[in-house]
Amino acid sequence: MMKNVLSSLKRLFRKTECNVFIAGSGHEGLEILKEHNIDIIISDARMPKMTGPEFLTAAAEQYPHTKRILLTGYADMEAIVEAVNLGKISHYVEKPWDDEKLQQLVEDTLVTINLKKKNEHLQSLLASQNEKLIAMNESLEATVKERTKKIIEINSALQENYKSTIDLFANLLDMRNPKPNVDVPDIISLVTDMAELLHLPQRELIHLTRAAKMRYMSQMSFADELLFTPYVLLSEEQKHEYKQYPLKGAMLLKNIRPLVTVADIILHHKEYLNGEGYPRGEKGESIPKSAQILTVANDYVELITGRLLEKTLTHQDAINYLETKSGTHYSVSAVEALKSSLSLKKVETPINDLHVTSQQLTAGMVLSRDLRNHNGDFLLSKGVKLADSTVMLLTELEKSAKKSFNYLSTYHLD
């Protein structure tokens, strides 16, 4: 009986594209399963030594990926139940079977198996691609992070270079401009205090301080008479030339992208709210807030240094002058901010000056006054922190001049 079943099955699937393996018992079937990758198992319920359900149970445990079909007679209901529960069969077929139906069952099962294999392959491929994608993303993130770090470093270096360049121009301008005989508040400190009191954004404050340092840039080309004469005493022709300095200064900077806003502040820092300023006579809201702050601070400095009016004004007279023009020429809030800033500076702890010679200079000392040589020529601005290289240069300058410089209470320790 067993041989007849095997022969019939072999003959039935001979013309298919399947590789058919025949086993005479359950033990032989397990051996074949060890040696070959089997997709479908068709087992008779009644076999010698090992029943069909027992064989399929063992196959299910060892080769769970296989599809298992049980051939059984109508009276073998107990075998069917056992095969379903333990052998986890996918189908059972009653004997005698219909060849076409059994063939169709096997073909449908193979289609299902192939679809499952393709799905598993795609899932594996997808997982592999996902792993590669994750690795690529991690690599990309690392690259972006590294490049961002480099960009930040480069940007910081550029910002530092801009700052150093601006400071250099500021020092050159200080050397060229008239030196007052009075102690003048640092305009950078003034505009910084005023901007903070008026809640100016940090980025705008940076532009404002740069503009304060470079506002006189175009005055480098002025003749001494134009530079050292108070504005009100200039001839009409000289005034016309003088009034162009904000415009010329702005034109020097406007093509440098990081300094475009700085150029705009410089252009407007001599404009007044009522339109009586220069170079364009702009008024009101057309004047940037930063420029309005610089206008007040700059005019205050020019009033107490004698650059604006015929006579040099005292601190209080300068404040009174600004207050009389507050709201017409100057921003009311900017004038009040200036007064608050100057008031705060009055209560600051006085600087403890030290009288020193060049041999006593050390790195870390900070200039509390402008430094001049024995002829009174300007060398360094107050507030500069001395470095070793600066000390060496000052010593060399003294040796070159063959005279000691006249250090007037110029230094205090940081």
Give the topology, please.
Blueprint: H1 2-12, H2 26-35, E1 40-44, H3 52-62, E2 67-72, H4 77-85, E3 91-94, H5 99-176, H6 187-197, H7 202-214, H8 224-228, H9 236-242, H10 245-253, H11 260-268, H12 289-305, H13 315-324, H14 332-346, E4 365-367, E5 371-372, E6 378-380, H15 388-401, E7 411-413
Helix pairs in contact: 2-3, 3-4, 6-7, 6-12, 6-14, 7-11, 7-12, 10-11, 11-12, 12-13
Keywords: Phosphoprotein
Modified residues (4-aspartylphosphate): 44
Domain HD-GYP: 158-353
Structure described in brief:
With 414 residues, this protein is mainly alpha-helical. It contains 15 helices and seven strands.
Distance between the termini: 110 Å
Hey, roughly how much beta strand do the residues contain? 5-15%
Which shape, going by the Cα principal axes? Answer: rod-shaped
Oligomer: single chain
Report the biggest beta sheet as strand number plus sense, adding barrel if it closes: 3 strands, parallel
Q: How would you state the average pLDDT, rounded?
A: 83
Features:
414 residues, mainly alpha, Rossmann fold, Hypothetical protein af1432, 3-stranded parallel beta sheet, two-stranded antiparallel ribbon, 15 helices, 7 strands
Describe, in plain words, how this protein is organized in 3D:
The protein is mainly α and 414 residues long. The chain has 3 domains: 2-97, Rossmann fold (3-Layer(aba) Sandwich), CATH 3.40.50; 181-348, Hypothetical protein af1432 (Orthogonal Bundle); 350-414, Molybdopterin biosynthesis moea protein, domain 2 (Alpha-Beta Complex), CATH 3.90.105. 55% of the residues lie in helices and 6% in strands. The strands form 3 sheets. A 3-stranded parallel beta sheet has the order 1-2-3, with helices on both faces. A two-stranded antiparallel sheet has the order 4-7. Strands 5-6 form a two-stranded antiparallel ribbon. Helix 4 links the parallel strand 2 (67-72) and strand 3. Helix 6 runs antiparallel to helix 7 and helix 12 (289-305) crosses helix 13. The longest helix has 78 residues, at 99-176. The protein is rod-shaped, with a radius of gyration of 47 Å. The relative contact order is 0.06.
